[in-house]
Specification:
By secondary structure, this protein is of the alpha+beta class. The chain has two domains: 2-92, no CATH class; 99-174, no CATH class. 40% of the residues lie in helices and 13% in strands. The chain has six helices and six strands, in the order αββαβααββαβα. It has helices at residues 2-33, 54-63, 87-92, 99-107, 149-155, 161-172; strands spanning 36-40, 47-52, 70-73, 130-132, 138-140, 157-159. A three-stranded antiparallel beta sheet has the order 1-2-3. Strands 5-4-6 form a three-stranded antiparallel beta sheet. The longest helix has 32 residues, at 2-33. The chain starts with a helix and ends in a 16-residue tail after the last helix.
Length: 188
Amino acid sequence: MTLTLLITFVVLILAVGLFIFRAIPGVRAYFDYHGKRLVTCPETQKPAAVDVAAGEAAVGAFLSEPTLRLKDCSRWPERQGCGQDCLQQIEAEPENCLVWKVVSKWYEGKNCVFCHKPIGPLHHLDHAPALLGPDFKTSEWKDLRPENLPGVFSTHQPVCWNCHVAESFRRVHPELVTDRAAEARRIW
């Protein structure tokens, strides 16, 4: 009886080890392909926002090779039957076409239009910087459609979070804002 128990235990350990060995590429594929991406549509040569079916890619990587397929596209449902040739861009550079990465690269090295402080590198847990439009209204980049971001970046200017909040308050509640000329500080 102990020999049977030992064999069962060894087989169980091998099965768990094999599962973990195959699960690692699956988890990696899921995180590689999870998230909204910005690609150039091969049909129109215009930006399109897409989501890859990351769960299917993870299962494919667990079983053998990840197979990429679009889960969503900003051009759907009108063009849902397309050949999904944009996936080649994602396969070539999965990290660089993430919307977050595109936005982060745009803000890199820029200063706030109001306070002139550097925006600094973006972090997921920080407040997101905003944009100042030609209409002199600030808006968060997260509120815009991802496929419109490349065009917006050519017409808008960077704004830090603090100035965005102040300007939004000024726009929404002008009756509560008093503008004063800057005074020299007195030292007592």
